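Tokenise the fold.
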Amino acid sequence: MAHSLSAKKRVRQSIKRRARNRFRKEMIKDKTKGFISALASGDLGKADEALRKAVQQMDRVAQKGTIHKNAAARKRSRLQLRLNAARATGGKGKTAATA
């Protein structure tokens, strides 16, 4: 348990920061799940829009420092690979969603 005033303040700040970071990461997960479900449905237009929103969210979170910019780039690349695989197969089948 913190005793000094500055230590108590740091505890308060870390609680707020943790909540904020968890929310930001959860937003990335939600947008990614939206993209994956759109991709699984076979609607490439909807999947493209969902990918755009997910990438935008990842870049924003990386800019704030919640995740590293290279981690955001890696996630972005993997999602783009999935979309490209779906386009190559015409948006059909499970291979596009799991690739």
